[in-house]
Amino acid sequence: MKLKNDLFLRAARGEAVERPPVWLMRQAGRILPQYRALRGKLSGFKELVETPHLAAEVTIQPIDELGVDAAIIFSDILVIPEAMGLPYQMVEAKGPHFPRTIGSANDINNLNAGESAAEELQYVFDAVKITKQELDGRVPLIGFCGAPWTILCYMVEGGGSKTFSKARKFLYQEPELAHQLLSQITETSIAYLKKKIAAGVDLVQIFDSWAGILPTKHYQEFALPYIAKMCEAIQEVPKTVFSKGAWTSLEAISATDCNVVGIDWNTDPSIVRAKLGDEKVVQGNLDPCLLYAGSQEIKEHTLSMIEGFGGKHIVNLGHGVYPDTPLDNVKVFVDTVKGFAY
Ligand code: CP3
Question: For the whole model, what pTM was predicted?
Answer without folding.
Answer: 0.97
